[in-house]
Amino acid sequence: MRAEFLVLRLVHILSGIVWLGSGVFTGIFLIPALSGSPAVMGQVVAGLQRRRYFTFVPIVATLTILSGLRLLWITSAGLSPGYFATGTGRTFAISAVAAIVAFVLSLGVARRAAVRAGGISGVLAATPDAPERERLVAQLDRLRRRGAWATTASIGFGVLAASGMAVARYV
Predict the structure, then answer these.
(1) pLDDT of residue 125 exceeding 90
(2) Structure pTM?
């Protein structure tokens, strides 16, 4: 049991660092740096797709959540209500919910918007027709706003989850 706990904890912490770190980098640095150039954004998204970034991050996020749920199961003796009546239990539970919300926002909204924006950017670069370009730019702007909102919210929930988990044992 102790070996399982240690391995789960290692997987949970390291995958959580990678997941939250990639979200912070993407939301604070990458998206703003690329937002001024749709053609470059399309190239970068295509490069990320070739390197399987959009497969890697969901796997890491899933590992984070599954290992965290198993750790919670072990620590709470099978999700015992008495455990969740404690400050530590409540804090871990709230943090788990925040992580799941971050997961849904990042993969269900932001990732989809980024992939669609990448596809539109590629089409936009090859479209000479001015009305069609305007339509594509408007669609791209909507997707960027949606993705930026979801990424920002996901980062916020991720930071809330990580903060709660960092202090839960002391609450």
Answers:
(1) no
(2) 0.85
